[in-house]
Write a structure and sequence with these properties.
The protein is α+β, with helices and mostly antiparallel strands and about 90 residues long. About 35% of the residues lie in helices and about 30% in strands. It is built from 3 helices and 4 strands. Strand 2 and strand 3 (about 50-55) form a beta hairpin. Helix 1 packs antiparallel against helix 3.
């Protein structure tokens, strides 16, 4: 049996794009929480200069499927012109 995978994902919006980034994340959250193996997928910090998403996946396989899924592809498209720097993922 594998241990759950915990991640912290940080998004740095361009100036003036905070609410559009937040909306894109909220849409993704609604889609992702029903994915197999998703234990936690929620916005845990939101300030004008960054948003932090906390994730927990039941297994590496579930995380891998999620990372290649439609919800992530859609989110990446929505955020492509809204972020000041690349998304940062950190395993906890």
């Amino acid at each position: 049996m594998t241990e759950p995978i915990d991640l912290k994902t940080t998004f740095i919006p361009n100036d003036g794009e905070f609410f559009r980034v937040k909306l894109a994340l909220e849409i993704a959250i609604d889609e992702v929480v029903s994915e197999p193996g998703c234990i936690r997928y929620e916005l845990t910090e939101a300030t004008d200069d960054r948003l932090v998403l906390t994730e927990r996946w039941a297994s590496e396989e579930d995380l891998e499927k999620h990372s290649k899924g439609v919800a992530v592809q859609d989110l990446n498209e929505r955020l492509s012109a809204l972020l000041a720097e690349p998304v940062k993922w950190e395993r906890l």
